[in-house]
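Now read the record:
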Amino acid sequence: MNVFFTKMIVVLLNLGFILLGLLLTVQVTTSAPHTYDWQTLLMVGMLYFILLNCLFIGSRLFRLLTQAANNQVFSSASLAIFKQLRGALLLIVLAVCGLLPKFYLLADLSDSPGIMLLGGSIILFPFAIYVLSTTLCRLLEEAIYLKNESDLTV
């Protein structure tokens, strides 16, 4: 029952990301000036890229929860899924760096350097999640190794 509830949360999060993508598309297509500077185009492109990666992460989390429901968490298949998650998180970390030119432009136009600090702190969140996922992946590798070793001794 707990896995079912978690799966529904993942599905609702994916639906929320799809809604955000639709809202971003409506905002970009209906805005008055259709001539954008390169910072805005880069930001919109990176937001779409991050959105697609979040949907990919949601699908992989759903598969990982299915593995958990079947009591196959400590298997090589779940490790492969977890490594795919880690790769998608790394892509998100790199894509978030593409948002910095827009933050620099906003900080320069409004003469407030705090906006640049805000942009830098936004980069730290996905990076911290990536570091945590790398640590968890290493722990999962060790747990699978110990499980296989204990299966051989029994």
